[in-house]
Amino acid sequence: MGMKFLDRIEETKILTRALSQKELSFIVVYGRRRLGKSTLLKRVLKKDDIYFMADRSEESTQKRFLAMAIATKYEGFDSVVYPDWESLFRTFNQRCDKGTTLCLDEFPYLVKSCEALPSILQKLIDEKSLNFNLIICGSSQQMMFDIALDAKSPLYGRANEILRLTPISISYLPNALKITAKDAVKEYSVWGGVPRYWELREQYRNFNEALREMALSPYGVLHDEPMHILRDDMRDLVQASTLLGIIGNGANRLSEIAARAEKNAATLSAPLQKLVKMQLIEREIPFGENPKSSKHGIYHLSDPFMNFFYRFINPYRSLLELGRIESVEKIIHQHMAEFEGACWERLCRQSVTGNEIDGTIFNVASRWWGNVSKTERIELDVVAESIDKKTLLIGECKWTSSENAERLLEDLKRKTEKLPFASKYQKITYALFLKEKPSKKADCITYLPEDILKII
Hints:
Layout (H helix, E strand, L loop, with lengths): L8 H11 L6 E5 L6 H8 L5 E4 L5 H13 L13 H11 L4 E6 L1 H7 L3 H10 L5 E7 L2 H9 L11 E4 L8 H5 L3 H11 L3 H7 L5 H10 L8 H9 L3 H12 L5 H8 L3 H13 L3 E4 L13 E4 L2 H10 L3 H5 L3 H28 L3 E2 L2 E2 L4 E6 L5 E9 L5 E8 L6 H13 L9 E8 L10 E3 L1 H7 L1
Parallel strand pairs: 1-4, 1-5, 2-3, 3-4, 12-13, 13-14
Antiparallel strand pairs: 6-7, 8-9, 10-11, 11-12
Helix pairs in contact: 1-2, 9-16, 9-18, 13-16, 16-18
């Protein structure tokens, strides 16, 4: 019994609406591997629609396979050898029932075998005589961008709907794996919001067993996962993996990354930008600074599993290959609380962003760090400004047990007095984000994991 289909309510609505209109639709769906794109598409397609999954075969083979897929609904369609893609699509257009949908999954593979394909489809779409809806879908985000979203592409501006699938929210995880909110933070810190990882994890008795069998074991299904993700999008795999490894192991500033990579910092901005665009890393700047001019930007791996891989699997590959899994498990165990804590912080900021807290709606939450005197440096986990710019929220995140909330609040207030920008706000709202109920309560808003999962 597989895991039930989760979330994707909005995406299902958008696709269903687009496919049921009188005007025939051209739809583009993309997003990285294992996010459930194919599952989503199969759910919205009707019984007589055509779903075709491309592969790396050459053009003539792909044409034959597509003709065979169409022949399952339109008898004899594959008894003809189609000299080119245009004749295949035109024949299908004549034979199909009006309003049928043709879905071409892993479309970039088709384009690799025939570069003219986007131009052929553009011609057919522009003639406005199509009898079928067309969906193209792909995991290579870069190629899908080049094919449909780049202004120089033949298909640019033709799509009725463009859907980029992103990971699903942690709020679905407790129900999916039948676990507590606190355990969900631990699991999410490794599996992130990738539905396929959740599905695989569900097959094991507990977290540690799943981690060992799926990720640490050289035979594990996720042991080489980052390479597959990078292969979909990166021409220079070695450079991308090197940069992810450096950032994943704690070098976060451009100067540190350049020093470890033994490269000039100026040559790294383009490859780092590409990793940001693919949503594999993010550049974080202190609250209130301009992203374009800030000199304080630091880089983090934004995908939880990639983060885990480059922190705990990649550096110890040779040990894992030798079967020394227990040694690596010990290392993970020593650092896991801190690793989960960083994930908890990100979730807390996410839960504040755009939400109403204590009657006030807040804008994007970030961290703040900086020097407040020659000898003192302050770091704050959560800082957010209200939409009306009158209130400042300042929060502290802790992923440890029996915290004294009263002391944490006093500490936050002391730090706030030294902040260079705090005085311009009419009101300061304090919030504590704790793993468990505190040993001593405080006179401020306190969030526990179950509260965060409700509002995120």
